[in-house]
Amino acid sequence: MRFIIVTGLSGAGKTEATKSLEDIGYFCVDNLPPKLIPKLAEACSGGNIEKAALVIDIRGGVFFDDLFESLMYLKKSEFEYEILFLDSSDEILVKRFKEARRSHPLSPEGRVINGINAERKKLREVKDRADIIIDTSKYAIRDLRGKINEYFGDAVVPEKQLSVTVLSFGFKYGIPVDSDLVFDVRFIPNPFYIPELKKYSGDDEPVKKYVLDQKETKGFITRLEDMLKFLIPNYIKEGKRQLIISIGCTGGRHRSVAIANAVHELLSNDGFDAKIEHRDISEDLHKGVKKL
User: Fold this and answer.
1) For 48-66, what is each residue's pLDDT tens digit?
2) What CA–CA distances, in Å, run from 164 to 86, 131, 151?
3) Where along the chain is ATP bound (predicted)?
């Protein structure tokens, strides 16, 4: 049986994540007192339920403190479970609460940001224990549903397989909060300052060729590939299921995109389950930009 514990920050998307899990056949329970987790796990196992998920968060009040005791019980009983933690930036969480005209559960009479800060502190340990962390700051509902299906759907890779996402980003928009490994490629000559290349992105052949032909790029990719070939099998051995490799340049449009694509291609050719995402490739787009 696959047993998922869904938790995370209020407003980060736990409700939508639960709906998505239900859509792919999970038996879902919302806001269960953590002390009852072992009972639910035993009932699902005995009832031939193949996929189950439960939502645990700070709505449980004082009962939330029983979570780690219940997790310890599951571990001693050799009952396998996964923790999915949903996160988001403070700015986006505040915006979501204001749009919904709701107060924060930990700050019902005060500022939303105070509740968010208190909740982050309370959830720090469970986040550290999470198997999968999804940052929903830039996700629409359909994007989150896609992520849930990717990690927990029937087509998910075998249990000990690691899902690797190579993510390009721009430092001026912030480092992705769900990054496991972050690499700064701003030491590579920047196509932005070459007039005939500025209008393209790292997805386009002129920029791709310029960036990948640099000797600094070749040395970086060779060393990074060697390091990842060492790290990934060890991550798999330790049971890690998600790896976010973030590669950043200034704006996330030229160097990081070209290099992320190259790293993704190398990992795919080496047989790893690799995906590619470009977070900020469109942030600096102006009207009339030519696309090859």
Assistant:
1) 888 999 998 887 666 677 8
2) 18, 13, 11
3) 8-15
Tell me whether residue 106 is annotated as binding: no
Residue 158 inside a domain? The answer is no
18 is in an annotated binding site: no
User: Is 287 within the bounds of a domain?
Assistant: no
Q: Is the pLDDT of residue 291 over 50?
A: no
Instruction: Please tell me whether 14 is known to bind a ligand.
Output: yes
228 is in an annotated binding site: no
Q: 178 and 139 share a domain?
A: no
Interaxial angle between packed helices 205-212 and 215-237, expressed in degrees from 0 to 180 and rounded to the nearest 10: 90
Number of domains in the chain: 2
Are 62 and 172 part of one and the same domain?
no
11-40 confidence digits (pLDDT tens) = 999 989 999 899 888 999 988 888 888 888
DSSP 228-275: HHHHHHHHHHTT--EEEEEEEESSSSSHHHHHHHHHHHHHHHTT-EEE
Specify the pairing of strand 163-170 against strand 273-278: parallel
User: Is 198 assigned a ligand-binding role in the annotation?
Assistant: no
Q: Indicate whether 120 and 200 sit together in one domain.
A: no
What confidence category does residue 290 fall into, taking pLDDT thresholds of 50, 70 and 90? very low
- Residue 148 shares a structural domain with residue 173: no
Task: Provide the percentage of residues in the chain whose pLDDT is more than 70.
Answer: 92
